[in-house]
User: What shape does this take?
Amino acid sequence: MKVIDLRSDTVTLPTATMREAMCQAEVGDDVFREDPTVNRLEKMAAECMGKQAALFVASGTMGNLVCTLTHCARGEEVILGSRSHIFLNEAGGMSALGGIQPHIVENQPDGTMRLEDIESAIRGDDVHWPRTRLICLENTHNYCNGSALSAQYIDSVGALARCHGLSVHLDGARIFNAAVALGVNAKELTRSVDSVIFCFSKGLSAPVGSVVCGPSDFIAEARRTRKVLGGGMRQAGIIAAAGITALEQMVDRLAEDHTNARRLAAGIAQIKGLSIDVRAVQTNIIYFELASDRLSSEQFVARLEKKGIKLLCLGGSSCFRIVTHYGIEAEDVDVTLAALREVIEES
Ligand code: TLP
Assistant: This one.
């Protein structure tokens, strides 16, 4: 039985071409800037994001942390969405390690924060108040239905930030899903931000790694911050090689994942006992609810797992997440829908 693992796009395995590239990678000591493969990946990543420079890091969490620590000093404040990954799921790194305070603004269901809400969160100059330094956005927005923020919205936040002398950081872990869904070049989504991270290890299927992109002077500082965090890697070209293949071969195919997600969402909407907002599904992330009291969330997950389907239940609630990715084929969508239907009918 094929296990259909829909818990996350982080479960993707490297392709045969990636393994071959990793095997053949030319390497050197990257802390001395002597790894040609890392250097090439950083150049490619910077170019993709329309930025001057880039820095290879171990994970998306490390990338976001390197950026917040580089932008902000102790006691300063970051404006963050209430459902942002940085706030909810990165172990409070910026506060724990940087003494940086998150100032939470409500995320709308489409992943945006209202401009007026952002503006009223910006502090004035008063000896009692922390200084606002940074606004963080997320695209696609994981916990807001994987929705894609438009270039126009990001530009308007950028303009607001500049008006107040603030910087903007974009958690673009899945920036290419956003670009593909919106039919734009990723650079359009990053032109108004000061720093951006994206991940090779999610939908792009590389085994490890993310990258921080921004102006050269920012990246030089970020390189120091990465070292402080113990993230200076040595012959990292072995893993960077997979990132190069990811950029060359795995971006355009994300459209398939979006098609599969839409088909899954449409199928789920037909199952009595499950509830979903089909219109909210724009990329590869789907959330739906179990609307039947004949089955607990734990039973639902366990019974699906017996049928070879894995998904995530959100923290003891009746809300579930499915993520489509490389390795999930059109026929797996049919198998998954059949299993969902059976589990509900058998309850
Ligand atoms: N997200 C993971 C889990 O942590 C939830 C997932 O399975 O979706 N930004 C965003 C928007 C993310 O979704 C994630 C990972 C990260 C940052 C962190 O990346 P990693 O896992 O590489 O540290």
